Amino acid sequence: MRRISILLLILFTFFASAAWPQAQPQWKHKIITYEVPGAGNGAGQGTQAFGINSSGEVAGFYTDASNVNHGFLRKPNGTFKKFDPVGSTNTFVIGINDEGAIPGWYYDANNVMHGFLRARDGAITTFDAPSAGTGANQGTIAGDLNDLGVIAGYYIDANNVSHGFLLNPDGIFTTFDAPGAGTGAGQGTFPMFFSCLTDLGASTGYYVDANNLPHGFVLNPNGSITTFDAPLAGTGAGQGTYGESINREGASTGYYVDENNVNHGFLFKPDGSIITINVRRAGTGAGQGTIAEGNNAEGAIVGQYYDATKVMHGFLRATDGKITTFDAPGAGTGAGQGTQPMTNNREGAISGFYLDANNVYHGFVRLPF
Fold it and tell me: From CA 324, how far away is CA 347, in angstroms rounded?
């Protein structure tokens, strides 16, 4: 998974080559690493942290020693709440809003997916999008929640086609498909997770067309959809443009894969222009490069880059374009290991996880000073 009216009339591309990124002085930030109690310590197990709100609360999921996933909420004081909806065999959590409410999805005993919302008081409500399929690996995926209580996500229908949705607090669903989205299995519209939805109702993600090529989109507050492609995005298998995050100003960030299968971050601005983001130390071979994951209200962007040995490292791109790189303590140095920031709050705290030398996941929070 992962033209009709593309609004890239003559977009000019700015390459954010910034000065050679330097490690930020230690006195300017602090990285806290953590494990959810009960997380497994085998390969592919551990703690994966995603959303972070303005209070510093973090939501994500952990994988136990039996390879079962469970949701968690980490408080700024380091305490945890662990949870699963009734009937869950695997729980996935990606987002959290400033009220501390958490959206997510779970698999039932028949491997059908269902959305849920965990309120701040711990009460869990489950839901299914209209027309969601009821077969294995079909159903409803809830990825993000804004401060007004609107949930964004997508559902997979009985034909294995994906469609976007917004769910209002009153229980009313609005479903949508990006112009040009394919109607075959594995195609369709995919709003993304943890920071893909603003309080105005703007959302971002990507859609997969009939040729299985991904393109970015922005769902505007008025319900119209803007589609776009990064200028140098490839058109081959596994290439294309992937929207990941949108902030309150309507700027969308993500990444694209070029014709050589190299990743590049981007910032898609409300005026339709695109800035390409390449961390200078990123590798330039297939499967290497820069991936932008989240952008906060102030416009700072976080993500990871793969170096020439395919090790991941975190980066922070400030609003002035300056790029700072960092690694979580304990991050592995083998191919596919390393540091993976996911999102940043308006105060500049960054949430993510790292993969150690034994391929175990661990959560981290990077705090600014």
Answer: 17
